[in-house]
């Protein structure tokens, strides 16, 4: 398959001489770093090494504090939020009534250290055990759990 005319036009472009030298150096160094075929066509020359920084920490500093309930939760959402917070000590917790306000279906997103070493099914069983009485009256639940 023959390359399109637009691609042929783009590969024959050269940097504009009206670019400021500093801007031209920046564009050139970026293009040389990535070394795509287009970058090689536009800026031939040696590649630059990119400096990488080590990861500071895989654990977030703010993740150790218990989440506070947002002020927009209704009474039923707040009850669920507080019950999960008390039992599972989550790092991140979101509770949302997705049934249109009637309280028959909820979306729960929970990140907790209590989930460490547990499969997803066991994590969900743990949440179901905590909310056993509430789930009896629900139509459904969307549950997302994550170990911290």
UniProtKB/TrEMBL annotation:
Give the record's GO CC terms. mitochondrial matrix
Q: Which InterPro entries match?
A: BolA (IPR002634), BolA-like_sf (IPR036065), Mt_Fe-S_assembly_factor (IPR052275)
The record ties this protein, via PANTHER family, to:
BOLA-LIKE PROTEIN 3
The UniProt entry's sequence similarity note says: Belongs to the BolA/IbaG family.
Q: What is this protein called?
A: Bola-like protein
Origin organism is Didymosphaeria variabile
């Amino acid at each position: 398959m023959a390359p399109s005319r637009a691609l042929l036009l783009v590969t024959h472009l050269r940097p504009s001489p009206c670019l400021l030298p500093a801007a031209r150096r920046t564009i050139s160094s970026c293009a040389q770093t990535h070394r795509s075929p287009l970058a090689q066509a536009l800026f031939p020359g040696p590649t630059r090494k990119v400096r990488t920084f080590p990861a500071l920490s895989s654990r977030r500093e703010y993740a150790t504090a218990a989440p506070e309930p947002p002020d927009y939760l209704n009474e039923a959402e707040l009850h669920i939020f507080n019950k999960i917070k008390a039992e599972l000590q989550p790092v991140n917790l979101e509770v949302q009534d997705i049934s249109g306000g009637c309280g028959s279906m909820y979306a729960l997103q929970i990140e907790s250290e209590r989930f460490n070493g547990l499969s997803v099914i066991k994590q969900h069983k743990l949440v179901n055990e905590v909310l056993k009485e509430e789930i009896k009256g629900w139509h459904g639940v969307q549950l997302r759990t994550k170990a911290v």
